[in-house]
Specification:
single chain, 93 residues, 6 helices, 69% helix, globular
Length: 93
């Protein structure tokens, strides 16, 4: 397996593991509005914790974030600047 194939496999499997992205998106939201923000904490409790598994997790996360969840938080966490990376090259799988 080449390094490119290994990287593609890693990111493909990581992408299918939405729980990691979800957690990083939630952390980003708390970082943006403050870890002690009562409004953010209340919204998290109402939109995610109180509903548990009564709705699809992706719907709950979308409601909390106010946008479609994505991999941006993961890329920031591992040091990839996607705006620069997409300008340099794009891959098709």
């Amino acid at each position: 397996m080449t390094a490119d194939a290994a990287s593609a496999t890693f990111f493909t499997s990581a992408y299918s593991r939405c729980d990691l992205y979800d957690a990083l998106n939630i952390v980003d939201t708390f970082k943006r509005y403050g870890m002690t923000s009562q409004a953010t904490s209340l919204k998290f409790r109402q939109e995610i914790l109180s509903l548990g598994n009564m709705k699809d997790g992706t719907v709950l996360l979308h409601n909390f974030l106010g946008k479609e969840p994505g991999a941006d938080a993961l890329y920031r966490q591992i040091g990839i600047n996607m705006s620069r990376a997409s300008a340099v090259t794009s891959y098709s799988f």
